[in-house]
Amino acid sequence: MNFSFTDKENSLFQEIESIMEKEKNTFQKDSLQTEKDRLLAMLSIQEKLFSLGYFNDYKKKKSHGPVKTLGMMKIFAKHHASLFLALEYSCRIFSEVIKCSSNDNQLQKFLKSSGIKNLPDPKIVGAIAYCEDFVETDTNSSKIKANSVDNKIFLNGHKQCVINAGIANWIAITGILNDKGAIFFIPPTSKGLTIKPISNTSIFPGLNMAYINLENCLIKDDHIISPVQLDILIPHIQSYENIALTACALGMIDQCVELASKFAKKHQSENKPMIAHQGVAFSLAEMLTLKQTAELLAYRAAWAIETGDSEKEVINNCAKVFCTETLEKIASQSMEILGGQVFQDNHVVEQAFQNSKFMQLSGTSAHIARISIGNSVLKLR
Amino acid sequence: MDFEQTKAQLMFKKEVIRFAKKEIVPRVQEHELKSEFDFQSFRKMGEFGLLGLHFPEEFGGGGADVLTTVMAGEALGEAGVDGGLTLALGAHSFLCADTIFCHGTDDHRKKYLPSLISGESIGCMGLTEPDAGSDVASMKTSAIRDGDHYVLNGSKIFITNGPIADVILVYAKTNPEQQHEGISAFIVEKGTKGFSAGSPLKKMGVRTSQTSELFFNDCRIPAENLVGQEGMGFLYAMQTVEWDRSALMAPFLGGMVYAMKQSAQYANKRFQFNRPISHFQATKYKLADMKIFTEAARSLIYRIAWCKDNGQPVNHLEAAVAKLFVGDWSLNPVNDAMLIHGGYGYCHEYGMEMIFRDSRLAPIGGGTSDIQKKIISKLM
C-alpha cells in the first residue's frame, strides 16, 4: 500500500497547476462570454495539456494511468469546472466513441474524410449526442433512425443535453441504421440540423449544452460507423463520463472547502474570526472530512481500474455517487459560511451547488448506480 | 498511490475470519445477552496470536505490521464478533500493552508483555475521570512521590476491562499544579493495596466488555512502576490515539461489512409480495449505501495504518478525519441494516440490533466526534 504520490507524480501535478495558473486570465468570466471565446479557450488549453499526455487513454499502458490522470483532472476542474468537462467530452470521450468501431475500414474512412488526424486530436472539438428520453437506461431504444432514400441516408429525431454542440467540429450521434446500432458523424453546419442552446440555465454555462433536432439530415456514407452495439458503447461512454464527473466533483469540493475556510479565517464576526465560532469551525471540519473521504475513495476507484480489480465497476459507481453527492453537501455548507456573497455574479460555490445535481444525474445517474451497487452486493447480476 | 494488500495479508485476514467464525462467533449471543466477558474466546484469541500481532516475536508477538493488525481487527468484525470483545482486545493490546512496550523499561516489557500477549493476563488503561473526559489535563488523580514509592489517590471512570484487568496502566498527575505537563503513566497490578475496581457499568452496547470505575485510595506502588518519564504521560496517551483511530476503528468497519453481507443474505431469502425483498429497489438502495460507506471508510482507516507502518508521524488531522467519518457517518448504514431485517432486526437473534448498539460507541469512545471536529478545525 502507498497513500502518497511520488516526487515525479507531484511534479506532473505541479506542471498542470502552473498551466492553469497561466490561464487564469482566460478563465475569467468576462473572457468566456461567447461561444467563440470558449472555443478558443478550449483549443488553447487542449493543445497545452495534450503535450503532457493528459488526454492519452488512461486505460492503455502507455499513459499516465487512471490514478495520475485523476489527480491531473482534479486540478484542472478546480480551476475551471466547465472548461474541464467540455474538454473531457471534446477530446477523451469523443475519441472513445470513434474508437468503438470494430470495422477498421469504416474507421479509417471516417478519419480520412473528417480531417481528424489523431485520436484524440487537439485541434478538433467533438460533441456526443446519445442522450434522449429513456436511452441512458434502455440503451437499445433509440428513436433516432436513419432512412435510406435513393441510396442516400437521412437522419431524423432529436437529442438532448448535447455538450459542446454549438462549437464542435463534429457531432457524434447514436442511433439506428437497418435495425442495428450506429454512430453518425455530422458537422454542425449540416443541412437539416438545428442546434438549440439550452437557455436560462445557470448549470455549467461553459458547457455549451444544447438540444439538437435532425430533420432529414443527410449523412455521408463515410460518416457512419455501423453496426455498433449501443448497449456496450453507451455504458463504455458512461464509464469515462463517470470518472470525469468524479474528478470534477473533487475539484469543486476542493474549491468550496478552500474558499469557505479562507473566508472563515479572515471574516470577523462578533469581534473574532468566524472560524473561532464553534458552529462554523465544526461545519468546516465536517467539510474537510468529507473532502478527504471523497478523494481517497475516488483514487481507490481509479486504482481499481488501473489494476483491473474485480470490483472496479462497483467501486467506481460508489465513488461517483459519493463524490457528486458530497459536492452538494459541501457546497451547501460552504454557502452557509460564505453568506449572501454567493448569490452575486455566478459565485463559484453557488455554481458548485447547482452543478452538483447535474453531476449526480449525468453519466451513470445516482439512481442507476445505486441499483447496480445493490445488485453487486446481492450478487444478483 | 497503491491500495494493494499483499497476498499474505489477505490470506491472514481470511484465516482470522475462519478462526473467529469457528471459535468465537458461536459464543457471542450467549455472552452478549448476559453482558458477560468471554474469557475463553479472549484466551483463544491469545493462542491464535491476535492479542500481540504487532509486538516483536521475542515477547511472544507476531511481528506483524500495523496494516495487518488493522485488517485482523476488521476481520473479527466481519466474521460477526461482537464489539465488546474487540473493544476489550483494543484496550488490552493497544492502550495498555503497547504503551508498556513503547515507553516502559526492559524489565516492564519482560515482566508484563508475554502474559498480556498470550492472554493469561488482561490489561486496561485508566485515563478518563468523572470530571475529566475530553479535557484530560483537568484530571484529579494524583501520584505523589514518597521515597521509593508513588502514592496514588483518585478515581477513573468508563475503563474498559477495568473489573477484570490484571495490569492497569493508569495516568495520574505527579505535579497537580501543572496541566498536561504534570501527567505521568504508571503500572498498577491487580491486588495492590489501595486499588479497587467498581462493578461493571450497564451499557447500551459493547456489553461483553467489562467497563467500570477504578479507585485509588493511598495506593502505594514501587517507583519503578513509573512508565517512561515523569510528566510525559499526556504525550504517551495521545500516541495511543493513532491506535484508537485505526486498529480500534477497524472492527467497527468489519461490523458494517458483516451487517451488509447479512442483510444481503436475508434480503435474498425473505419473500414478501411473492418475491424476495432483494428485488425491491428500496432494499438495493440501502445495501448500496452500506457498500459506499464501507468502501469510503476502509481507505481512511488503512491510511492511518500505512502512516504508522512507514514511520510517518500520523497526521492528527487525518486520524481525526478517519475517526469522525466512521463515528458519525456509520449511523445511516447500520440503521439500514436493521430496517432490511424488519422486526427481526429489532430482535437479538439476528444480531443487527447488537451491531446497531455497538456502533454507537464509535462517535464517543477514544475522543468524541465533537473533539475530532475541534482537532480538525484547529489544524485547517
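Chain A touches chain B through 43 residues (CB under 8 Å).
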